[in-house]
Amino acid sequence: MGVDLGGSGFRVGVFDTATGELMQPLRHHKHGSSTAPSAVLPALVRAVESYAWTGPIGLGFPGAVEASKPVTAPNLGDAWLDVDVGATLRQFHGGRFAMLNDADAVAVAEARHGGGHGGHACVLTLTVGTGLGTTVHRNGTMVPNLEYGRLPHPLRDGCLEEHLSGAARARHGWSLEHWASRFQEGLNHLEEMLAPDRIVLYGGIMEHWTEIQPQLHSSAELVVAQLAETAGPLGAALAAASAAQPL
Predict the structure, then answer these.
(1) CATH 3.30.420.40: which residues of the chain?
(2) Domain 2-104+230-241 maps to which CATH number in 3.40.50.300, 3.20.20.30, 3.40.50.620, 3.30.420.40?
(3) Residues 173-203 pLDDT 10s
(4) End-to-end CA distance of the chain
(5) Would you say the pTM of this structure is higher than 0.90?
(6) Which residues are CB-contacts of 163 (< 8 A; sequence separation ≥ 6)?
(7) Residue 24, Cβ neighbours under 10 Å: how many?
């Protein structure tokens, strides 16, 4: 089972991790007025109960994660810091639990069951949504918790995700063309920092890829992710499947 927890809600799915196939319909839950753990975790427990699930559970979290606990939570609030989500769900997973950054979960799923890495040594996956998720794989190994979207923009006030995210476009009412020009600025900066061979773009705004693609330029191979809304939960499920040791 994989859970993709975000700023506006969460998605839960059960997968065959060998093939990436969704075994039961993906379920969506929208947060209420509060995103505090006291409000979200009971809803998550009810969602898992609705599957009558017992087995490994993975959870993608919108922040940096260490030892399966959040250490940053910019979109959910500081009440989440060091919360033991695994303990809350232990009745279902019995110790087979993994928690990772949500953008890292997307990158894991895309690498395994999406477009892959095409033999490239350095692959940067950018998850464009409420924020800007940044994940790097070097020679097939993921570097976790980078959160480069929180870095200062090199040309403008604020951080990168304040200009490159899908939420920024919606907040300012930017056209696709204007958003793409902002995104190109950030793309140039990340490419200079990381020198990737391939850049994978993921997020709802990529439904406009045919319009966006001609406006973006990179010396790296620039591709759109093959997976859609299942990517986050699937990546979390893959992480859980590899978590062999009980907590």
Answers:
(1) 2-104+230-241, 117-224
(2) 3.30.420.40
(3) 999 999 999 999 999 999 999 999 999 999 9
(4) 17
(5) yes
(6) 153, 156, 182, 183, 185, 186
(7) 12
